[in-house]
Specification:
α2 (about 30-40) crosses α3 (about 45-55). The chain has about 160 residues and is an alpha+beta fold. It starts with 11 loop residues before the first helix and ends in a 13-residue tail after the last strand. A hairpin with a 6-residue loop joins β2 and β3. Helices cover about 35% and strands about 15% of the residues. It is built from five helices and four strands, in the order αααβαββαβ. It has helices spanning about 10-20, 30-40, 45-55, 85-95, 120-135, and strands spanning about 75-80, 100-105, 110-120, 140-145.
Amino acid sequence: MSRPAAPVALDDTDRRILNALQEGFPLSPRPFAEAGEALGLSEDALIARLARLRETGAITRFGPFFDAAAMGGAFCLCAMAVPADRFETVMTEVNAQPEVAHNYERAHRLNMWFVLATETPEGITQTARRIEEATGLPVLLFPKLEEFFIGFRVAA
């Protein structure tokens, strides 16, 4: 579950890291060493900076993005209207599902938003139904209609 973080001051090196690692990450025995070298950083320095960026909320995750549909699976954005007094319990039930990629609280009637990533398109409905059975609350499905790739860059 992610909550908005306080604004974080990024230095020039943080900005270069954020921009460079969106273009790809080495597939090698020492990828952080290779990526760090390209940025003028040691392996340990790059790992420490990524950890700090994650801890401060400047980034919410660092990892690969797989195209589930290209591999025969599916992604789906989902939302739920969860009573405030049950939010933590429902969050635990939702996050217990291995298909839940990430989960966010929002200040809205639909206050829980999460992404399902499944091995088959049918897995989306099956997982949503399991969550509904576990929580007693409806899961609204918002399947992707069109793919957009938005590049995020920070002034470096």
